[in-house]
């Protein structure tokens, strides 16, 4: 069997890819634009070209084709048929995994957040946990429900859409059509949008966090709304599924204690008759999706135990250019 797999994490604006050996060595990494603004056909061609170029690089390094490929994509995924059913930010529908790889090798396709959750489960902040929620808070919010040691996708692949749990029933309208969704208040884009609208001055979520820390009252109100929304949604999740921990990732989690400390306090107060699960920061950062795709690739190659012996030391996590 070949020494490596091709792993690609497809995002709305860029793709991160790598070559990962069975022992967990990341032999090469690269990044490419997704090109979603040019239409779904261009996205498919871009992913196909990227995986082909990575495999060519692998042939130079190892002298063989890859053992398999793993690809993480946004939107709705049918794991059973390895089909990307729909992604609003990419514009595609019903794309078989085979169309994304110009090689005759096994391919596994995974939902991007669940694939990141798989990586955090095997390699990162959830390594020793069998049940936890991986919650990356970025442009949007979705969760990977790790149950019984693996990500749970539900009957139709929609499990984990915690960003569209209504937390303020009389609140602002979400882009999904509902009212008061978590994502409308607590995503990085929502924090930026809500502050910018009130201040009549544009600011990123990172800048809103800095203003909050500096005592700006308007920023503090927007940040407080985000924390309140998260505490409501996570209290409900905890009562339903009793996770061992909640692993926070994405751009907003980079605020560290500014987010985690008040969130832990409010979550604890909401769960009046039980202990709140601990909050952990995700360990793998932007590499989680690519490393999760590598794990999928080795599963496609018939080596499901790959990853079990990989080092938990996150210093080995590759820097994706």
TrEMBL record:
Keywords: Kinase, Transferase
InterPro entries, sorted: ATPase_NBD, ROK
GO molecular function, one term: kinase activity
Gene3D superfamilies xref list: 3.30.420.40
Highest rank taxon of the organism: Bacteria
Family annotation (Pfam families): ROK
PANTHER family noted in UniProt: BIFUNCTIONAL UDP-N-ACETYLGLUCOSAMINE 2-EPIMERASE_N-ACETYLMANNOSAMINE KINASE, ROK (REPRESSOR, ORF, KINASE) FAMILY
Family: Belongs to the ROK (NagC/XylR) family.
Entry protein name: Sugar kinase
Taxonomic lineage of the native organism: Bacteria, Bacillati, Actinomycetota, Actinomycetes, Streptosporangiales
